[in-house]
Amino acid sequence: MTAASGTPTAPPISGTTRLYAVIGDPVAQVRAPSLLNPLFARLGHDAVLVPVHARPADFATVLAGLAATANLDGVLVTIPHKVAACALATERSTAARISSSANVLCRAPGGGWRADNFDGAGFVRGLAVAGHPVRGRRVALLGAGGAGSAIAVALLDAGCASLAVHDPDQARCADLLRRLDAHWPGRAEHAAAPATRDADLAVNATPLGLRPDDPLPLRPEELPAGCVVADIIMKPARTRLLAAAEQLGLPTQPGLPMLAEQLDLYRAFFGLGPPGDVDPASEG
Questions:
Q1: Are 198 and 175 in contact (CB under 8 A)?
Q2: 228 touches 201 (CB < 8 A)
Q3: Are 51 and 127 in the same domain?
Q4: Number of domains, the chain
Q5: Count of beta carbons in the 10 Å neighbourhood of residue 229
Q6: Which of 2, 67, 197, 273 reaches 20 to 30 Å from 85, CA-CA?
Q7: Residue numbers annotated as active site
Q8: Are residues 140 and 236 in the same domain?
Q9: Which of 97, 117, 137 is the last residue of a domain?
Q10: Do residues 143 and 204 lie in contact, with contact meaning Cβ atoms separated by under 8 Å?
């Protein structure tokens, strides 16, 4: 369907509409519906993506319920469920297996869920589009959770010179570094504090910034001139960290490009047709 303006509109929701869910805790900040639903409309695909709020204690139950929903074709996963989603999947991509986290699920042919993680690929693509390629860069990564783990994998795969990972959960950080070292020996290390002094790229992959009273995940005044400051928080788009970095004259990268650059990957994963005919910047 097409509106009078020529903009594609989604088919009306009916008994034939296919369902997709984005599941998290909280979900007020999710931007996936503003990107995926216009994509469905552009493709003429009778589908809708809706947010599903599930507490961590209920995640497995909710995911099992979604698996039993016959007209549900896929699930996007956000904070804090990415590690749990990967653990509950029956099939895992290389990115999901190394990072031990998943941000997307679809039904596996033999039953259960097939898991992948496009956070890292989307993040690196977004940086490249903005003119910040990661090859040869020294990276300070904050957060070894689901998104941080996926980003670590993608950064190393893209050829960053070094990766210093900081997370208050030292056991989680050590587990991530062990998995990374099996594929990129000696390229990643634990940082007891954010490794800001000599970073070319500083990445906040923690939830700090979702709430107005959150502390800053790092001290931007400690970063060298020219260091790119990236935040994967999508709402607010201009986090306190990014605002503080901008005030110091540092280049910044917001969170939305990480999601927008995953659209083609979602299309292939969900079997929605070949990539290339949707401009992510025009969606949402």
A1: no
A2: yes
A3: no
A4: 2
A5: 25
A6: 273
A7: 82
A8: yes
A9: 117
A10: yes
For residues 150 and 213, the answer to whether their CB atoms sit within 8 Å is no
Judgement on whether residues 165 and 219 belong to the same structural domain of the protein: yes
Which CATH number characterizes residue 185's domain?
Answer: 3.40.50.720
CA 43 to centroid of chain Cα atoms = 23
Question: Do 56 and 179 lie in a common domain?
Answer: no
Over the range 176-197, which residues count as b (16 or more CB within 10 Å of their CB) and which as e?
Answer: bbebbeeebeebbeebeebbbe
In the three-class reduction of DSSP (H, G, I as helix; E, B as strand; rest coil), residue 262 is classed as coil
Identify whether residues 175 and 110 lie together within a single domain: no
Total-model pTM: 0.86
CB distance 252 to 245 below 8 Å: yes
pLDDT tens-place values along the chain, 284 residues long: 555 555 667 678 999 999 999 999 999 989 999 999 999 999 999 999 999 999 999 999 999 999 999 999 999 999 999 999 999 999 999 999 999 999 999 999 889 999 999 999 999 999 999 999 999 999 999 999 999 999 999 999 999 999 999 999 999 999 999 999 999 999 999 999 999 999 999 999 999 998 889 999 999 999 999 999 999 999 899 999 999 999 999 999 999 999 999 999 999 999 997 765 544 433 33
Range of the domain at 81: 18-117
- Decide if 2 is inside a domain: no
Judge whether 247 and 253 are in contact, CB under 8 Å: no
Last residue of a domain, one of 71, 98, 117: 117
Are 59 and 90 in the same domain?
A: yes
Distance of alpha carbon 82 from alpha carbon 6, whole angstroms = 38
